């Protein structure tokens, strides 16, 4: 350390900090930093000292140094060390308590009121005290850990600028402390430089309250003496100290107070009063109030007459009529449309209004724009947006879908802007919607079906709350989506459902309502891979199109609807999770009655030729019925138009997506690494954490190309994953022919029991002997090569294979 310090002496205190053999170079600007780094390297060269380039970091805005993180915001301990304190178990004796307090004391200067918080714990360390873990100590233990994990960064001070010291004394805890602050010129407010605190001694606890408050200021001034100058101000929340005249009162003071006042005069600092209500110096995280859960009680009242016809709410319509008088735009429109105004020769309406008046009419005191009810006032408009966005039948869908639902029946100026301002601020959407990720690999869209239900996609939404529904226990949803009309079916079921049970649900809900599809798109799930399930599809004349292993790209439609369903369920049953099966019909209706972005029409209209009737649409007078022949022609035209739109959408989606993707150039014989996400269906052992595990595994040799965006890899024995992998999971691993075969790194997963169905082949001998094993519940294409040590419980299957082979 002495050698490094001597070598760096010219730069110490200017731009360099040295600790043993660690050198930290700091600068305020990039140009100055280049000069400082060059200076330090020149000093090292002049003293024949060398640095290892692998251990160096240059031109960084944040660094780890001696257990702390230093960046532009300030200094704070490394998060990993704080998490160790957070996870500290309750002490069992005095020894463990001392160890914890010693570890916590390392971050003491970052925690305001440390001594006050830890006082019940430090009191237990007194000599002669018997250790007893009380409720008060447990509360203090948890509070101290919470204060430590929520610490904020400390501001790096500027010695040329004045400091402020804020002191406080806790009578209840018999502790004193405070904060050293400095104004940040970048933002204009005070930032904490350090915190300090300690408990009062037995003698100090007998001081009068005024002297205790003065003692807090003296303690802080002594603690931070290197920072104190004549420009320093000490703030106290004890009102009697504001009348303390350090010069006039000195002659009257006695004892310790006289010594303290002499210390104040020596430093030349100013003592000022700050009311306790304003002396809130806790850092932003510890001051943050707990978030309140929003409890929205929504009542829906539907009044039915004996007739089967539903009528508009007259109370709502009256509010609309009354609102026209409050809204300037509609008030003017109402005036120019009134018979009295039309019979008089008055000034022309403004151009903005004149254009809309040509499409407006008045019926029963209500304004209609292009046969859409005109809605005045912000309150009524927000109520309608709520009805078309927040209720279960609307589904908390996006801006465009909400707008298209509204524009069908209602009108007001700048309608899209109103929706665009409402939806992004929706609390449920903000809390529950996920950000879409960019896709990987060249897009391979499926061909557009010829008619509805020729092709459907299927998938499961799992891990939902287990509830009793219609006589059965359910915790999953079977998702079936028609690929032409985009009409979803959400069918509650159990995670443990068998292939036969899934087929029964499919038959009841799909086949009996829409007929047998020609094609089913599904991911590679054991439910669909079972031989009975595949045989059922063959008998029905379907073609089971399987997606790449671990990459359901061909089943992206079901994945999107699964995400939509999860989002809507979070919005409506966060506090009542057992109600999710009852919501499925409403949420399904929300999707089929909403305009699909690719179809430019609702799934209901594509299937049946007309829009689904909703409660908001009942507020508008009935529309004229369409003749049967015209209805048939319009429906056929709509289907053809939808297919063209889907084809154009597929082409456009592929064009746009491929701009952000690159074509894979892997060929058979190449070596590749595989991302850990490919193996995420397996479970890591409990002692292993994904954060510290490998990201890429392998390398594996490519055996052959499968389709446009997948390859079959040569997995070694023991890897129980289907070897067809999408290119988005792969990364090139260069291998030279002269090099020995690379070492294959495999993921270590929690051991699981797999039941052997049969052994179908063997290879090698001795130490290289492997058996080709078909696993129960999986097809022969999922068979894997396993060494004998993995088949210790399958001796009967091996014996049966050898006996069959001998007979052959």
Automatic annotation (TrEMBL):
Residues 632-663 form a coiled coil. Residues 754-808 form the Chromo domain. One of its GO terms (biological process) is proteolysis. Keywords: Aspartyl protease, Coiled coil, DNA integration, DNA recombination, DNA-binding, DNA-directed DNA polymerase, Hydrolase, Magnesium, Metal-binding, Multifunctional enzyme, Nucleotidyltransferase, Protease, RNA-directed DNA polymerase, Transferase. Residues 448-611 form the Integrase catalytic domain. SMART domains: CHROMO. One of its GO terms (molecular function) is DNA-directed DNA polymerase activity. InterPro entries: Chromo-like_dom_sf, Chromo/chromo_shadow_dom, Chromo_domain, DNA/RNA_pol_sf, Integrase_cat-core, Integrase_H2C2, Retrovirus_Pol_polyprotein, Rev_trsase/Diguanyl_cyclase. This is Integrase catalytic domain-containing protein.
């Amino acid at each position: 350390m002495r050698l490094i310090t001597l070598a760096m002496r010219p730069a110490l205190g200017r731009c360099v900090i040295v600790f043993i053999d660690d050198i930290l170079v700091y600068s305020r600007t990039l140009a100055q930093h280049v000069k400082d780094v060059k200076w330090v390297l020149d000093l090292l060269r002049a003293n024949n000292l060398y640095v290892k380039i692998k251990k160096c970091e240059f031109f960084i805005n944040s660094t780890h140094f001696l257990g702390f993180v230093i960046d532009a915001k300030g200094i704070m301990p490394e998060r990993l060390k704080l998490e160790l304190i957070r996870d500290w178990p309750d002490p069992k004796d005095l020894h463990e308590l001392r160890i914890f307090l010693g570890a916590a004391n390392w971050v003491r200067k970052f925690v305001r009121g440390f001594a006050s918080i830890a006082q019940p714990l430090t009191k237990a360390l007194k000599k002669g005290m018997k250790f007893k873990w009380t409720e008060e100590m447990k509360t203090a233990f948890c509070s101290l850990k919470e204060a430590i994990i929520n610490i904020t960064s400390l501001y790096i001070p500027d010695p040329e600028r004045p400091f402020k010291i804020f002191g406080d004394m806790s009578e209840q805890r018999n502790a004193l402390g405070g904060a050293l602050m400095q104004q940040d010129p970048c933002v204009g407010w005070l930032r904490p430089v350090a915190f300090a605190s300690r408990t009062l001694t037995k003698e100090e606890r007998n001081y009068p309250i005024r002297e205790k408050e003065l003692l807090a200021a003296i303690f802080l001034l002594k603690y931070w003496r290197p920072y104190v100058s004549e420009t320093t101000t000490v703030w106290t929340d004890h009102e009697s100290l504001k009348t303390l005249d350090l010069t006039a009162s000195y002659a009257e003071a006695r004892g310790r107070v006289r010594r303290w006042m002499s210390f104040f005069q020596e430093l030349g600092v100013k003592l000022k009063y700050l009311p306790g209500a304003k002396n809130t110096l806790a850092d932003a995280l510890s001051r943050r109030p707990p978030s309140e859960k929003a409890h929205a009680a929504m009542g829906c009242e539907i009044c039915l007459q004996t007739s089967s016809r539903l009528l508009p709410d007259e109370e709502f319509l009256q509010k609309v009529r009354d609102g026209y008088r409050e809204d300037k735009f509609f008030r003017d429109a109402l005036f120019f449309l009134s018979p009295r105004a039309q019979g008089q020769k008055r000034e022309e309406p403004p151009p903005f209004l004149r254009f809309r008046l040509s499409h407006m009419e008045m019926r029963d005191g209500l304004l209609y724009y292009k046969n859409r009810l005109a809605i005045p006032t912000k309150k009524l408009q927000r109520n309608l947006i709520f009805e078309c966005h927040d209720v279960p039948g609307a589904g908390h869908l996006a801006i465009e879908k909400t707008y298209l639902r509204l524009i069908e029946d209602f009108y007001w100026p700048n309608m899209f802007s109103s929706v665009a301002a409402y939806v992004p601020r929706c609390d449920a959407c903000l809390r529950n919607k996920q950000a879409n990720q960019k896709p990987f690999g060249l897009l391979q869209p499926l061909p557009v079906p010829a008619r509805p239900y020729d092709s459907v996609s299927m998938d499961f939404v799992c891990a939902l709350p287990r509830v009793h529904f219609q006589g059965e226990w359910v915790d999953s949803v079977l998702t079936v989506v028609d690929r032409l009309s985009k009409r979803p079916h959400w069918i509650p079921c159990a995670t443990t459902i068998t292939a036969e049970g899934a087929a029964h649900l499919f038959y009841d809900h799909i086949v009996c309502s829409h007929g047998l599809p020609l094609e089913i798109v599904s991911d590679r799930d054991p439910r669909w891979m079972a031989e009975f399930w595949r045989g059922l599809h063959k008998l029905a004349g379907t073609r089971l199109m399987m997606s790449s292993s671990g990459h359901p790209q061909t089943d992206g439609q079901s994945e999107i609807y699964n995400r939509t369903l999860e989002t809507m369920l979070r919005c409506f049953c966060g506090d009542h999770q057992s109600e999710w099966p009852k919501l499925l019909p409403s949420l399904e209706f929300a999707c089929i009655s909403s305009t699909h972005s690719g179809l430019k029409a609702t799934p209901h209209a594509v299937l049946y030729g007309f829009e689904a009737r909703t409660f908001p649409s009942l507020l508008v007078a009935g529309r004229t019925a369409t003749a049967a022949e015209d209805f048939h022609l319009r429906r056929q035209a709509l289907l053809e138009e939808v297919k063209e739109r889907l084809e154009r959408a597929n082409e456009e989606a592929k064009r746009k997506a491929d701009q952000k993707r690159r074509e894979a150039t892997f060929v058979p014989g190449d070596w590749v690494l595989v991302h850990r996400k490919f193996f995420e269906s397996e479970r890591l052992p409990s002692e292993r954490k994904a954060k510290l595990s490998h990201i890429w595994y392998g390398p594996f040799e490519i055996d052959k190309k499968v389709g446009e965006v997948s390859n079959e890899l040569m997995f070694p024995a023991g890897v129980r994953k289907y070897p067809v992998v999408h290119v988005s999971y792969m990364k090139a691993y260069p291998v030279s022919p002269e090099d020995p075969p690379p070492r294959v790194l495999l993921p270590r997963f929690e051991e699981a029991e797999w039941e052997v169905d049969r052994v179908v082949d063997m290879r090698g001998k001795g130490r290289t002997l492997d058996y080709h094993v078909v696993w129960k519940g999986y097809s022969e294409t999922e068979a894997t090569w396993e060494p004998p040590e993995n088949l210790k419980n399958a001796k009967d299957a091996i014996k049966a294979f050898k006996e069959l082979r001998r007979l052959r």
